[in-house]
TrEMBL record:
The active site is at residues 141, 451. GO terms for cellular component: endomembrane system; membrane. The gene is Vigan.05G198900. Mn(2+) binds at residues 286, 310. It comes from the Eukaryota. This is Cellulose synthase-like protein E1. Gene3D superfamilies: Spore Coat Polysaccharide Biosynthesis Protein SpsA, Chain A (3.90.550.10). The chain crosses the membrane at residues 19-41, 53-71, 523-541, 561-584, 605-626, 646-671, 683-705, 717-738. InterPro entries: Cellulose_synth (IPR005150), Nucleotide-diphossugar_trans (IPR029044). It is a multi-pass membrane protein. The keyword DNA damage does not apply. Keywords: Cell wall biogenesis/degradation, Glycosyltransferase, Membrane, Transferase, Transmembrane, Transmembrane helix. It holds the Pfam family Cellulose_synt.
Amino acid sequence: MEITEHTPLFETKKSRGRLIYRSFATSLFLCICFVWIYRISHIKDAKGEHGKWVWLGMFCAELWFGFYWVLTQAFRWNLVFRQPFTNRLSQRYEKKLPGVDIFVCTADPDIEPPKMVINTVLSVMAYDYPTENLNVYLSDDAGSQITFYALLEASNFAKHWIPFSRKFKVEPRSPAAYFKSIVSSGYSADSDQVKELTAIKKLYNEMERRIEDATKFGEVPKEARLKHKGFSQWDSYSSRRDHDTILEILLHKKDPENSKDVDGFLLPTLVYLAREKRPQYFHNFKAGAMNSLLRVSSNISDGKIILNVDCDMYSNNSQSVRDALCFFMDEEKGHKIAYVQFPQIFENVTKNDLYGSGLISISEVEFPGADGCGGPLYIGSGCFHRRESLCGLKFSDQYRNDWNIKEDYQFKKVSLKELEEESKALASCTYEENTLWGKEMGLRYGCPVEDVITGLSIQCQGWKSVYYNPLRKAFLGLAPTTLPQTLVQHKRWSEGDLQILISKYSPAWYGFGRITLALQMGYSIYCLWAPSSFATLYYSIIPSLYLLKGIPLFPKISSPWFIPFAYIIVGEATYSLLEFFFCGGTFQGWWNELRIWLYKRTSSYLFACIDTILKLFGFSDLTFVITTKVTEEEASKRHEKEIMEFGTSSPMLTVLATLALLNLFCFLSVLKNAVLREGGFGICETMVLQLLLCGFLVLINLPIYQALFLRKDNGRLPGSVAIKSVLLALFVVTFFSFA
Ligand SMILES: *[C@@H]1O[C@H](CO)[C@@H](O)[C@H](O)[C@H]1NC(C)=O
Ligand SMILES: *[C@@H]1O[C@H](CO)[C@@H](O)[C@H](O)[C@H]1NC(C)=O
């Protein structure tokens, strides 16, 4: 095909099979209505002392499940898939590509080791993109000298690494990931490359050793400190919560001597920033760091496009910047797009994804669905932004792309030193006082999931966003590798999302009339994660206890009302299994995800709700637990074998264990009665759904029983949890049977 000025830079395809899906969803919805009707019309059938209330509770739970299911349809109704054409981009714009500023954020050198951080930095510095237009900023919220030292080392290593990766078209361009991949793939190439590879690997290993030593001893080598003036900025540093702005431009075209690679080509700009911190000023976590970066970078490079990645998400594809630009630079539709979100893919996920941390149905189904109704959420990492929209510009029909660099900026004649001093002022604590930063400009403050709220408010200003999920994944990160980590992470997410719902940026009212109804519904899927814990808890306790008492809560198998229940169970199970296969999962993986679905709802979300309510009454404060990303050796062996890691005692685990045991006791006792009593198997007719539900809960909790009673390793459930949960479950069961 001939390429003219008018061929689009990207295309959008709708998913196939939409008609089939929509018919299925409609039929399921009908059955949900029948279940509601059944509950209302059969309230007189409720037996037992508090029967009516229990029945009403069942109705409320089913009302919630149905309502929530309807919400999830918003992101399944209209899936779209995007495809950029980078060759067209190069043909038309290769000489006119815009500046791209890349922000890498790190917050704690103990949890996010400097070695990992610089691999991410190197991977984005090595993008296949004109280096004079590429600028990389590292924001270090710990203000750690070790991290600075590691970055300094990385800036020297880049002089070898970038020419090497360009010459041999290396992928991925994170050195650690690349060296690991060639070891595992039994590497073969011409001798020229082997020689250079050996040399560069040696350089890398030496650098790695120096950084690891510095990390271990908590001290920068003396020679390095003497050699580089940047370290003197730590002279006035008192703690990570109390220090001046530390800003160092490590590579910049104004310092060409130092900023060229070994082949004599210019390297990307590289800047280290630790914004000013004072105990009396609230720092607003990552949102605060991002806003400082936005201002500092506008003074140093002013790239029109901003990429933001977490420090544990390295680039796995050197073409991603070009992919993203195809969306922004498209002549017809590009000017409407505020951000392009890539999926977050996790490397440390085992084959059957024991903790459901791959979140694949979100990245493969829900986000393409979000894209079909106005654009995906902004999820904080792996996202390209248009600087203007991130800084608060409202979209208007007159808006057009303009990639030219501002003139006054281009001719700015200041020395590097002056540039540093000027920029430092932009990262001070007081800079934002009486400004719109955090309110209408930059990332919005006041919420632990600042990214989602920012994306929503950008969409509310009329912009569109795009989701691009390439076959070869663009960013790879680390997922939690133990159950407590997973649960804590989800507590934080669901709590933050719930706070969005009750904040002034709620998709429900703030979004009303500004974004499509479908998108409002879609946002609510995540905002309502936490409250869905109540219905799930009810469903996993009450039917089992009533089974124990022999009181039916569902229609019996011979009743026509049984049909809608059966249809929903079979239909939804089959559909979710098929969806999971479509996303590339395994059967075991689906089962694991179902388990995590249950665990999140009965622990993380429950505690998220409790905390939110406490906070409403002014009790606790925003506390942040960063999820650890390194694991000990024994635990990582169990991780590879897919043995669930509990390890610590926490209230969340006690709740999970108690629920598991409660269902086990109910199930065993019913089984015993069925066998011992004459006609005991009659309950299979009268109470089959309750029996199935209880049996399902027992089956899915098998790893908990093992961890309580059978395992001996350190990852088992601690004895204290075992005692507490056995006592609690026994108490509830006995109390209930005699009540
Ligand atoms: C990462 O990139 C490599 C090529 O460098 C590719 O083989 C691999 O499949 C990619 N990983 C993912 C998860 O897409
Ligand atoms: C990631 O998982 C691999 C094996 O699956 C393991 O060797 C490695 O230590 C893990 N890394 C982290 C940081 O947990």
